[in-house]
């Protein structure tokens, strides 16, 4: 994912001031020179409202968490260095610049990138100084952007701005082919395990097609196919998600011409809208109170279809671009979720979920809530070695206890520090028919980002109908962390993409900042953070109490 906090190209002197913040010498300055002892600075917390950092006085030892020795040298002018020295009594300098040490021995600095790619750290605690060196490898060659990041749930930055690529050689002639989506699942419910299309080879995800979709492929470039959806629209899909099935129909037809007739079929937990699609590709655009379906290569039938269900406020065909049919599905209640899939004859089913019955006086009672303690694999590590996976699990298990005590059913996607792949997490929540999915995370910075300027609490959503859940969580978590509010933000993250239920991904604190990592080791603060998550979920459910419907099964 791209860096949402781009590095500021600030002159080195100003960057140094920003990195040190309000630091005061704790003793007399040493004389300059290669043998000079480091100057000890008093650590000033970035987040003073958090619990005080406990003191630690272990053996003096320099441990650098970032950067990793031998990692490719980033293409930035400044970046952060962090880790620990074992004792809060230590003085530390990095490449000759004094750096404050927290009471528990942690440190974090943001400094100009050394010309030779080497960080030299010198720490002293009254005896012989201890030195450590971390050297980058040569910069990694700029590689073409990969088309498939659908499994990424990280919010970290790209490590480098790629230089302009040389002009690509002319592509060989390609005979248009009919292709069928054969990769992924047969239903759009998790927002991930489907064929994902982009308007350009490296663009934003826009189309999510389950197995059975039929496409007119007109170009291959590397490991991607370009499909012509209508006369004005094309999309790029991973080649390994498609199977070529022979020469394509004439341009503009998609082999799926005809009217997209609609039938409405109510059921206990949802209502199905069945479109005669012949496997045509589609785009679903969700809002809080409606769904808009675009069927490519089809035409809108005459007349206005009957809604025929109390969940539906109306269904209307819209005048759109030639070569496509557009249906607007207006809802009488806020959208709770949807999935889309093809039947054997190519009929496209848009299944709209009924909202669960919610008691305003006890909103959590009977709710099925999936809690995902984010990572492993992957995840951030704090200065003293606390992993994000450990912190997330500590919050997630406390949150599950609180939700169950209030009458909710809770599914934890993991209960131990064992790797669980992203796809399995969303698959499990959808298969369990969860009413909500909340993924618990703590944050990290991308290479070159100034941690002293960009830290804060944030919550992410992807589907617009999940935005209210994200806003309630953000409001409550900010009240608990009392650090800057980065807000509820839309972002294309795997755990925020499910379509079958509202879902959000929380980023409470930044693992890299010493007092924020220390807070995530504090049982009382972890309780406070779990309480905040629970209040946010409860507030969202209470706001939807008027949207009663048959419980989803």
Would you give an account of this structure?
The protein is an alpha+beta fold. It is built from 7 helices and 31 strands. The strands form 8 sheets. A 6-stranded mixed sheet has the order 27-26-28-31-29-30, sandwiched between helices. The longest helix has 21 residues. It is globular. The N terminus and C terminus are likely disordered.
Helix segment tally: 7
Helix-strand category: alpha+beta
Strand adjacency order, main sheet: 27-26-28-31-29-30
Shape: globular
Distance between the amino and carboxyl termini? 35 Å
Radius of gyration: 27 Å
Which range does the strand content fall in?
Answer: 25-35%
Largest sheet: 6 strands, mixed
Tell me the helix content.
10-25%
* Mean of pLDDT: 87
Question: Count of DSSP E strands?
Answer: 31
Low-confidence stretches: 1-33, 145-165, 252-256, 548-553
Helices and strands, with pairings:
Elements: H1 12-20, E1 24-25, E2 41-42, E3 63-66, E4 78-84, E5 91-94, E6 97-99, E7 106-112, E8 118-124, E9 130-135, E10 177-181, E11 187-188, E12 195-197, E13 207-209, E14 214-221, E15 224-228, E16 234-238, E17 242-247, E18 262-266, E19 270-275, E20 282-286, E21 290-296, E22 312-318, E23 324-331, E24 338-342, E25 348-353, E26 368-373, H2 388-405, E27 409-412, H3 422-431, E28 436-443, H4 451-454, E29 457-461, H5 467-481, E30 485-490, E31 503-510, H6 514-519, H7 523-543
Parallel strand pairs: 26-27, 26-28, 28-31, 29-30
Antiparallel strand pairs: 1-2, 3-4, 4-7, 5-6, 5-8, 8-9, 10-14, 10-17, 11-24, 12-13, 14-15, 15-16, 18-19, 19-25, 20-21, 21-23, 22-23, 24-25, 29-31
Helix pairs in contact: 2-7, 5-7
């Amino acid at each position: 994912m791209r860096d949402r906090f781009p590095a500021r190209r600030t002159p080195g002197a100003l960057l140094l001031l920003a990195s040190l913040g309000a630091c005061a010498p704790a003793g007399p300055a040493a004389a300059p020179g290669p043998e000079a002892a480091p100057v000890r600075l008093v650590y000033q917390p970035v987040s003073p409202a958090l619990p005080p950092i406990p003191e630690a006085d272990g053996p003096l030892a320099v441990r650098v968490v970032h950067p990793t020795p031998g990692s490719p040298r980033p293409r930035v002018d400044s970046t952060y260095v962090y880790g620990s020295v074992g004792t809060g009594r230590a003085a530390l300098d990095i490449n000759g610049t004094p750096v404050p040490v927290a009471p528990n021995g942690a440190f974090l600095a943001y400094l100009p990138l050394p010309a030779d790619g080497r960080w030299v750290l010198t720490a002293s605690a009254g005896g012989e100084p201890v030195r450590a060196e971390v050297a980058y490898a040569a910069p990694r060659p700029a590689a073409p952007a990969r088309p498939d990041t659908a499994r990424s749930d990280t919010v970290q930055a790209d490590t480098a701005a790629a230089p302009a690529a040389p002009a690509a050689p002319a592509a060989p002639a390609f005979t248009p082919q009919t292709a069928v989506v054969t990769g992924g699942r047969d239903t759009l419910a998790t927002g991930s395990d489907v064929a994902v299309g982009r308007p350009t080879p490296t663009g934003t995800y826009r189309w999510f097609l389950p197995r059975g979709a039929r496409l007119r492929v007109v170009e291959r470039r590397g490991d991607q196919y370009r499909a012509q959806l209508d006369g004005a629209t094309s999309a790029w899909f991973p080649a390994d998600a498609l199977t070529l099935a022979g020469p394509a129909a004439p341009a503009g037809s998609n082999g799926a011409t005809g009217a997209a007739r609609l039938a409405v079929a109510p059921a206990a937990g949802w209502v199905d809208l069945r479109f005669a699609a012949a496997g045509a590709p589609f785009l679903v655009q969700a809002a809080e109170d409606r769904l808009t379906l675009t069927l490519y290569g089809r035409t809108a039938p005459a007349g206005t279809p009957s809604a025929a269900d109390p969940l539906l406020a109306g269904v209307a065909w819209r005048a759109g671009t030639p070569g496509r049919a557009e249906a607007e599905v207006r809802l009488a209640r806020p959208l709770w979720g949807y999935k889309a899939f093809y039947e054997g004859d190519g009929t496209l089913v848009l299944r709209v979920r009924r909202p669960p019955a919610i008691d305003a006086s006890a909103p959590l009672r009977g709710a099925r809530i999936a809690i995902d303690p984010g990572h492993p694999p992957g995840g951030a590590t704090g200065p003293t070695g606390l992993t994000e996976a450990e912190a997330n699990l500590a919050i997630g298990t406390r949150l599950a206890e609180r939700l169950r005590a209030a009458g909710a059913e809770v599914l934890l996607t993991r209960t131990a520090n064992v790797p669980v792949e992203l796809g399995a997490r969303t698959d499990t929540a959808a298969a369990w028919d969860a009413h909500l999915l909340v993924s618990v995370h703590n944050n990290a910075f991308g290479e070159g980002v100034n941690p002293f300027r960009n830290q804060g609490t944030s919550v992410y959503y992807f589907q617009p109908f999940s935005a209210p859940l994200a806003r309630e969580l953000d409001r409550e978590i900010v009240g608990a962390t009392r650090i800057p509010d980065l807000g509820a933000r839309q972002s294309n993250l795997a755990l925020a993409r499910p379509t079958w239920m509202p879902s959000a991904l929380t980023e409470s604190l930044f693992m890299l900042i010493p007092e924020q990592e220390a807070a995530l080791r504090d049982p009382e603060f972890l309780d406070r953070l779990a309480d905040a998550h629970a209040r946010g979920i409860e507030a969202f459910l209470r706001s939807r109490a008027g949207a009663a419907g048959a419980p989803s099964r």
